[in-house]
Structure to design on (335 residues):
C-alpha cells in the first residue's frame, strides 16, 4: 500500500487489518466503505483517512451554503459530514451528490445503529412521522378500489426493484441532460476563455523556465496555468460530454427501461417516469384521498412537483426524492 490511510479517531486498526480492509472496501466517489472502517478523502487524496465504525456516532449529507468568500464559492456543493469520538467532525466534498446518497445507503444497511441524518433532520423526521400517524388515525378506511390500486403500484415497485440499475441510470441520465441543457452559452464561452488563457500562461511559463533557468515564480505560473487549462477543458464539450452524447445517453436509458417494463402486464407508468419514488408518491396520493386511480395519482404527483422550487423549505429526505425524480418530469415537460 503506497499511501497508508491515517486514523482520525482514537480507535485504530492494526496495520494488517487496515491493509486488508482498504483493499476490499467498496469505493464510492472519493470515499470508501470497508468491513471495519469508513474511508474518507482529503483535499487531494482519495480515502486518505479512516474512522472505524465503532467510533462513528453520526454521518449525514449537507449542502454547502454561503453568500461570499470561500463558502460562497463552494455554495451548492454536496458534502458528507462524519461525526466521531463524541464531537469531532470530518467533512468530505463530493463531485456527485448521488454518490453520497449511495454511501449512506450502504452504511445504513451495514450499520443501522449509526444515524445517517443530522440531529435536526432526525427531529424533523420524528415530527413528520408523528404527523403522518395522526393523519392515518383520522383517515377513513380505504375503499376496495383504492386498496387494489395501491397493491398494483406496490407490485410495480417490486418489479422495478429487481433491476435497480435501470431506474438509477434513468435518473442519472435525466439529471445529466437537465444540467447540461441548463448551462448558458456564456458559460461555455467563459470556459473556453479560461482554457485559452491557461494555455497561453502555460506556454509562457515553460518557455521562461527553458530560456531563463529554474525559478519558483515560473514554476508556480506553470502549475496554476495547468490547473486553469484542465479546468476549462472539463467544462467544454468533448466526445463524451456534448449535447448529442447527453441526449443519446438519456434515450438509451429510456429505451432500456421501456424494454424492461414491457414484460410487466399493464405497467402503471410510462418508461420516462418509471421510478419507485414516483410510484410511492402515487400510493400516498391515493391513500390520502387526493386521487381515486393510478392516472389521477400521477397527475397529483406532477402538480406537486410543479409547485416545488428552490425557495421552498423541505426536509433532506424530501429534497433527495425531489432532486431524483423532478428532472424526469422537467425533461418531458410534465406530459
Amino acid at each position: 500500500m503506497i499511501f497508508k490511510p491515517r486514523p482520525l479517531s482514537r480507535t485504530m486498526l492494526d496495520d494488517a487489518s487496515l491493509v486488508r480492509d482498504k483493499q476490499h472496501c467498496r469505493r464510492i466517489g472519493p470515499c470508501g466503505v470497508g468491513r471495519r472502517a469508513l474511508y474518507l478523502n482529503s483535499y487531494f487524496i482519495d480515502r486518505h483517512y479512516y474512522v472505524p465504525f465503532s467510533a462513528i456516532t453520526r454521518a449525514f449529507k449537507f449542502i454547502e451554503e454561503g453568500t461570499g468568500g470561500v463558502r460562497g464559492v463552494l455554495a451548492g456543493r454536496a458534502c458528507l459530514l462524519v461525526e466521531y469520538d463524541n464531537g469531532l467532525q470530518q467533512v468530505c466534498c463530493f463531485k456527485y451528490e448521488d454518490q453520497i446518497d449511495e454511501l449512506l445507503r450502504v452504511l445504513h444497511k451495514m450499520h443501522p445503529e449509526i444515524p445517517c441524518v443530522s440531529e435536526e433532520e432526525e427531529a424533523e423526521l420524528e415530527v413528520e412521522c408523528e404527523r403522518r400517524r395522526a393523519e392515518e388515525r383520522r383517515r377513513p378506511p380505504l375503499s376496495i378500489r383504492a386498496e387494489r390500486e395501491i397493491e398494483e403500484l406496490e407490485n410495480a415497485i417490486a418489479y422495478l426493484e429487481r433491476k435497480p440499475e435501470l431506474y438509477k441510470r434513468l435518473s442519472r441520465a435525466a439529471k445529466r441532460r437537465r444540467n447540461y441543457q441548463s448551462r448558458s452559452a456564456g458559460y461555455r464561452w467563459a470556459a473556453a476563455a479560461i482554457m485559452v488563457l491557461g494555455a497561453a500562461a502555460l506556454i509562457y511559463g515553460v518557455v521562461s523556465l527553458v530560456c531563463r533557468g529554474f525559478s519558483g515564480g515560473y514554476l508556480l505560473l506553470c502549475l496554476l496555468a495547468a490547473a486553469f487549462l484542465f479546468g476549462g477543458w472539463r467544462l467544454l464539450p468533448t466526445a463524451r460530454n456534448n449535447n448529442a452524447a447527453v441526449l443519446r445517453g438519456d434515450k438509451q436509458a429510456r429505451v432500456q427501461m421501456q424494454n424492461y417494463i414491457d414484460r410487466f402486464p399493464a405497467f402503471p407508468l410510462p418508461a420516462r417516469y418509471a421510478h419507485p419514488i414516483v410510484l410511492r408518491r402515487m400510493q400516498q396520493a391515493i391513500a390520502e384521498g387526493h386521487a381515486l386511480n393510478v392516472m389521477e395519482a400521477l397527475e397529483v404527483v406532477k402538480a406537486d412537483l410543479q409547485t416545488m422550487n428552490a425557495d421552498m423549505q423541505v426536509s433532506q429526505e424530501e429534497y433527495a426524492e425531489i432532486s431524483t425524480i423532478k428532472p424526469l418530469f422537467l425533461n418531458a415537460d410534465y406530459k
Notes: The longest helix spans residues 185-212. The two ends are 53 Å apart (CA to CA). The mean pLDDT is 82. Residues 6-116 form a domain with the PH-domain like fold (CATH 2.30.29).
